[in-house]
Specification:
The protein is 44% helix and 12% strand.
């Protein structure tokens, strides 16, 4: 079997990041979807700003936890949309963000990989505490060998140091590892690092205009089972 380890991004790949729209809609009627989209974009923008402004091997001096970046991104979006975000609603939204559901096929796919003797891991920008909460809430812990957070290097993806965490943790070579993400920019970064990549294209989007094409593409995680068959 070619791949001995499959590494997953978390948000949008294993966990439905846009599930938060319903919570946002209940607090800000007619704005839930728009907030969730803008929030995600601002969140990623902040991670890039932190990393690009000081890509030191020792970590960025501007590093903020992913939870803090997530919170500040939400506050920015609400301000930009002229929406009043009070402390009580902020707590409700962040609590929901930390309890996102896994996609329907997620657990069965992970179980199938483990049955075939393939190691599994998460590599995410999110804090270890955030990831552990999501994994435990969705009953995925028995099906994952490791949960890796980029907080260990105080940089965010797509810095090479973040993907290198996988090689530091597992005794596998790059060609034995498959990286899985629903974020095309993450697929590009992992591919440039040297991993084979699987793009979960849930929304039938075009791929990025830079970077090599993904080795594999499917609209759900179930496509992985075809790759390892």
């Amino acid at each position: 079997m070619k791949y001995k380890l499959i590494v997953f991004d978390a948000y949008g790949t294993l966990f439905d990041i846009y599930f938060i729209s319903a919570c946002l809609e209940s607090i800000f009627p007619n704005h839930g979807t728009a907030i969730s989209l803008m929030w995600r974009n601002k969140q990623v923008e902040y991670t890039r700003l932190v990393t690009m402004s000081d890509p030191s091997p020792m970590g960025s001096r501007y590093y903020l936890s992913f939870l803090e970046i997530t919170l500040r991104s939400l506050r920015y979006v609400c301000k930009s949309m002229r929406l009043v975000l009070n402390e009580a609603d902020e707590r409700i939204i962040i609590n929901q963000y930390n309890n996102l559901p896994a996609y329907a096929e997620c657990k069965e796919v992970l179980k199938s990989l483990k049955k075939k003797g393939i190691a599994t891991a998460i590599l995410s920008n999110a804090d270890q505490a955030m990831l552990s909460a999501e994994v435990n809430a969705n009953g995925l812990k028995p099906h994952l060998d490791k949960i890796l957070s980029t907080e260990d290097v105080k940089l965010f993806k797509t810095a090479p140091q973040t993907y290198d965490l996988v090689l530091q943790t597992f005794a596998y070579s790059k060609n034995e590892i498959l990286f899985v993400s629903s974020n095309a920019w993450d697929v590009v970064g992992a591919g440039w690092f040297g991993f084979d990549v699987f793009w979960v294209n849930r929304f039938k989007l075009p791929f990025e205009e830079i970077g090599g094409q993904p080795n594999y593409e499917h609209n759900s995680l179930e496509g992985l089972l075809e790759v390892i068959a």
